[in-house]
Write a structure and sequence with these properties.
Number of helices: 15
Shape: globular
Transmembrane segments: 51-72, 84-106, 112-132, 139-159, 179-204, 216-235, 263-283, 303-326, 346-363
Protein name: DUF1624 domain-containing protein
Order of helices and strands: HHHHEHHHEEHHHHHHHH
Structural class: mainly alpha
Organism: Flavobacterium quisquiliarum
Keywords: Membrane, Transmembrane, Transmembrane helix
Strand content: under 5%
Domain Heparan-alpha-glucosaminide N-acetyltransferase catalytic: 3-221
Length: 384
């Protein structure tokens, strides 16, 4: 089965969007003290600057599962695919806790260790490597079951100190484990994200359809997911731990309606983000050729881009702090270097300009690495 351009195009689009969220996280004037989804302090532009980037993580995880299915079909060798998945999963865990975490905090002492999207993909690969003998449709149903019902688990009245709750909590909800003056932060509880990956794996079979049939199917799935999101959200009983409420005006009531939970990804979060993703997959190869070409450059080298862009943004953050008059002794760990209790950072319009600069800066390196990867067969290229 040939490589599917729509996957790389969509992955590239969300990677471009992802950089906006990380520039905002590290450099926005209010990012350390305020949440962009706090309706008491946010603005519609700031809210949707954050909301649009919700699309990124579920798309990465979903398409990681899809790529595993397509790779399995191409190789037609279950044993080799399983071995590769296991090794790649372990490698991604190591990468997350070393190079990615250092790029995020620039803290040589690793006082905060985050389990985020790279680690959750690694965890998913390891679990998926053990499940490859199961029919893809069955894995898809298991994934859907997780997505639709994992929000019920916190409602089960287990004792706070019960062994079931103690063991399951870090796999299902964000958890912090302090140790030796440090903290291990389970930011991406792996079970809900595994559900997304399993659905992505099962969806891989749809890429065997002719392009027009696939476009129609993905359009129907995307619109159905968005319609289901709207219905469940309107009923306002289940699907997200944060219910929507009437706000001071219609615009903020709409923001409340759209304010779904990412940590962990709720059913409604998955419906709205994956619904949009399916529509992007349906029309990716109908986008203007120039947009396709640009997106493909980033989409073909996702891990390379992910790691490098963090270092670029963090270096820019330190330059920002120096130019704003802060000294190295004032930098704080755990806040990307931003001094606590002191105003630093740029307004939102500047964040957008820096985002465009970062994405443009990485275009040529990604283009070079994509070409190098395509022209060489070194074993380590499979892991980066």
């Amino acid at each position: 089965m040939k490589r599917q351009p729509s996957i790389d195009i969509v992955r590239g689009i969300v990677m471009i969007i992802m950089a906006l969220d990380h520039v905002r996280d590290l450099m926005h004037v209010d990012s350390i003290t305020q949440s962009p989804t706090d309706l008491t302090t946010t603005s519609p532009l700031l809210f949707f600057t954050r909301f649009v980037t919700h699309l990124c993580a579920p798309t990465f995880v979903f398409l990681a599962g899809t790529s595993v299915y397509l790779s399995l079909q191409n190789k037609n060798n279950l044993s080799k695919t399983r071995t590769f998945l296991l090794k790649r999963g372990l490698w991604l865990l190591v990468l997350e806790f070393t190079i990615v975490n250092f790029g995020l905090f620039f803290d040589i002492g690793f006082h905060s260790i985050l389990f985020e999207v790279i680690a959750t993909i690694g965890f998913g690969f390891i679990i998926l490597s053990l499940l490859l003998k199961i029919r893809s449709q069955t894995l898809g149903f298991i994934g859907l079951f997780i997505l639709f019902f994992h929000n019920l688990l916190p409602l089960i009245p287990f004792s706070e100190n019960s062994i079931i709750k103690t063991v399951s909590k870090p796999f299902l909800s964000p958890t912090v484990f302090p140790f030796s003056g440090r903290a291990f932060i389970m930011g991406y509880p792996p079970i809900p994200w595994l559900g997304i990956m399993l659905v992505g794996f099962a969806t891989g079979q749809f890429f065997e359809l002719a392009e027009e049939k696939r476009k129609i199917l993905f359009t129907k799935i995307g619109l159905s997911a968005l319609a289901l999101f709207t219905i469940i959200r309107f009923v306002n009983i289940y699907g997200d731990p944060a219910l929507w409420t009437t706000q001071k005006n219609a615009a903020f009531s709409f923001l409340s309606f759209m304010n779904v939970t990412k940590y962990p990804p709720s059913l409604l979060f998955c419906l709205v983000t994956l619904g949009i993703m399916f529509l992007l997959l349906a029309f990716a190869e109908k986008l203007p050729i120039r947009i396709q070409k640009v997106a493909l450059v980033y989409g073909k080298v996702p891990l390379f881009y992910f790691v490098v862009h963090f270092y670029v943004i963090h270096i820019l953050t330190l330059l920002m702090l120096f130019t704003q008059g802060f000294s190295f002794s004032q930098f704080e760990t755990g806040t990307f270097g931003r001094p606590k209790g002191m105003k630093s950072g740029f307004p939102l319009w500047t964040i957008y300009l820096i985002w465009i600069f970062v994405v443009a800066l990485l275009y040529k390196p990604c283009q070079w690495y994509g070409k190098y990867k395509a022209e060489n067969q070194h074993w380590w290229l499979k892991y980066i």
